[in-house]
TrEMBL record:
One of its GO terms (biological process) is phosphorelay signal transduction system. The keyword Phosphoprotein applies. InterPro entries: Bact_response_regulator (IPR050595), CheY-like_superfamily (IPR011006), Sig_transdc_resp-reg_receiver (IPR001789). It comes from the Bacteria. SUPFAM superfamilies: CheY-like (SSF52172). Residues 40-154 form the Response regulatory domain. This is Response regulator.
Amino acid sequence: MYPPTRAAFGFRLSMSRYEGLTFCLSSSRIRVRFLSQSCTIAVIDDDDALRESMKDMLESLGYDAIAFPSASEFLDLYSQCPIHCIISDVKMPGIDGLQLLDILNGKGARTPLIFMTAFRDQRLTTAAKQGGALGVLSKPIDSDQLVAMLESAVGDHSGGKETD
């Protein structure tokens, strides 16, 4: 894999996709991702609208995304399909996000996990980091922060070359 190169452009461009190439301009920089093998991201949130919009956004970025309304539904299918990263709400009915992290750690799972929450505090951030979570994003989600965390989480799994 080659190190990313960067080029700045003086215009803004939205997403476009053409046969394995994804072009994305963020903060006046264009990223080109050559997707020869897609990454699968699991989105877990009990809020239907947020879950589906997050899934749509991830797919527009070139990822495969699977949405789950609860941690228990995710756990039922977790071992049956390859998941490269998990994005989960913290506060959910039943198994919450931190409990999910504990369960995955107990299974020896090494899948990167990114939390999102509307109720962020220092105790949550500390518990998530100590449990091995990649990070905690506050709702509403900052898309640039999410993309940076995803690139950090799945950069080695994307199967492709990315340039800036």
